[in-house]
Amino acid sequence: MVTIEQIALAILRDDSLMTRALAQDFLRRRPVFAEIPQPETDDPVLLAIAASLLELFALRTHQPAPKWTRQIGPVEPPRYLLKAAAHLRRLRDLCRDAAPEPLRRRHLYAPPDYLAFV
Questions:
Q1: How many independent structural domains does the chain possess?
Q2: What is the domain range of residue 25?
Q3: HEC letters along 5-58
């Protein structure tokens, strides 16, 4: 069973193929997002990614997010969730300007349709 922590770890490793595959498997089981526990980690970036993803998925499926996600603040320095944004200025600008709100609020940047296919 795929966890939100596994998806966040794939993002941290810049493994976009694995990220998409894990996200598809995770969402295929139609989880109740409000019931997903906080990952057991001290890594603030991992927590921020996990919280952002759960809020994003919950928003897209019209569900409430877990209450613990509200306590997870922004990361420093800001991070782009797509490796290509490091060297493609237009993509970087798009990510920064149009990232979904749950990501942007935590200084995580991705295109507006990030993981929308799942």
A1: 1
A2: 4-109
A3: HHHHHHHHCCCHHHHHHHHHHHHHCCCCHHHCCCCCCCCHHHHHHHHHHHHHHH
Distance from C-alpha of 113 to C-alpha of 74, rounded to nearest angstrom: 20
Residue 45: inside a domain, yes or no? Answer: yes
Q: Which two tokens stand for residue 71?
A: 């306590």
Q: Is residue 101 part of a domain?
A: yes
How many C-beta atoms surround the C-beta of residue 117 within 10 A? 8
Question: How does pLDDT run across 47-92, given as a tens digit for each residue?
Answer: 999 999 999 999 999 999 999 999 999 999 999 999 999 899 999 9
Tokens 């795929």 correspond to what residue? 2
Residue 116 within a domain: no
